Amino acid sequence: MATRSALINVMQKASTAASRGMLRDFGETENLQVSRKGPADFVSRADTNAERVIKAELHKARPDWGFLMEESGETAGADSDAPVWIVDPLDGTTNFLHGIPQFAISIAVMDKGVITAGSVFDPIRNELFYAERGQGAYLNERRLRVSGRRHMSESLFGTGIPFLGRGTEDDHKQFIHELSNVMPRCAGIRRYGAAALDMAWVAAGRLDGFWEHGLQIWDIAAGFLLVREAGGFVSDFASRDKALETGDVVTANPTLHAELLRALRS
Ligand code: 2AM
Ligand code: CA
Ligand code: CA
Ligand code: CA
Q1: What single-letter DSSP state applies at residue 133?
Q2: Phi/psi at 247 (5° precision)
Q3: Which EC number applies (predicted)?
Q4: Cβ(88) to ligand 1 under 6 A?
Q5: Is 75 in the pocket of ligand 1 (CB under 6 A)?
Q6: Span from the CA of 62 to the centroid of ligand 2 (angstroms)
Q7: CB contact burial 85-124 (16+ within 10 A = b; e otherwise)
Q8: Most Cβ neighbours (<10 Å): which of 126, 178, 181, 202?
């Protein structure tokens, strides 16, 4: 049984508090104020409300820490050496606005450049994925381990398909190329639309791997630690430990990671 640390309790409390308003707004999205940050990059009142609630809860618990949040950007902590909260208040806004129940709240802690804690909360399924560096990854009370599948032919991968405004025409072609390489070698590919949750699902062994280009640090910081603590590999497309810096993510169980990379680059 997992005994949740005080830090994870803070993250859980902030996520649950934010999810209440989110669940109220879900299904009522025709009344939600929506604007755009890019041609197909939407931000709604649900995103900004969740971010405000999360920030207040986290600040109350750790008054000196800084913030890096999707909607409000960076806020320095009282002391520049203090840890920073990295927050995506609503990952999967496009799903949310379409009434598709696949979205999450992602919170991570970065301490001197290292991710030391992370949580991804799926309010629809009431699933809290969390990890602390060196302490393993958990789903609610259960210890997580990445899948043990050894062959691509039996494996299910998640990915992110580019959309209007994400990447150049060449990036879109590159994605089609990757798809045509991976597709005929594996048991299936899914595009769920919430990257933080995709990575949590790799940690949980539901997906055997996942890849996507052009993500932001708040999409992947918590998922990164979840996968690592569940025994999985996370890299960029050149197999370097640079996923967080580049936003280009290739993740899988240790057996499949090299094979997935090879397929993506072939
Ligand atoms: P967001 O909902 O927090 O913005 C995966 O493709 C990531 O890209 C998602 O986690 C999502 O995070 C972001 N994204 C932004 N606009 C998107 C769109 N139109 N379709 C899919 N994902 C989008
Ligand atoms: Ca967004
Ligand atoms: Ca996101
Ligand atoms: Ca978001």
Answers
A1: T
A2: 75, 5
A3: 3.1.3.25
A4: yes
A5: no
A6: 25
A7: bbbbbbbbbebbbeeeebbbbbbbbbeeeebbbbbbbbbe
A8: 202
Nearest CA to ligand 1 atom 19: 40
Q: Is 220 in the pocket of ligand 1 (CB under 6 A)?
A: no
Structural class in CATH, domain 6-143: alpha beta
194-252: per-residue pLDDT in tens? 999 999 999 999 999 999 999 999 999 999 999 999 999 999 999 999 999 999 999 99
The amino acid that residue 33 corresponds to is: Q
Neighbour-count burial of 204, counting CB atoms closer than 10 A to its CB (0-12 exposed, 13-18 middle, 19+ buried): buried
Q: CA angle, 224 as apex, 252 and 227 as ends, to 5°?
A: 45
How is 155-207 classified by DSSP, letter by letter?
-EEEE----TTSS-HHHHHHHHHHHHHHGGGSSEEE--S-HHHHHHHHHTTSS
Where does the pLDDT of residue 172 fall: very low under 50, low under 70, confident under 90, or very high at 90 and above?
Answer: very high
Domain regions of the chain by residue span: 6-143, 152-265
Q: Read off the pLDDT of residues 12-48 as tens digits, 9 standing for 90 and up.
A: 999 999 999 999 999 888 888 899 999 999 999 999 9
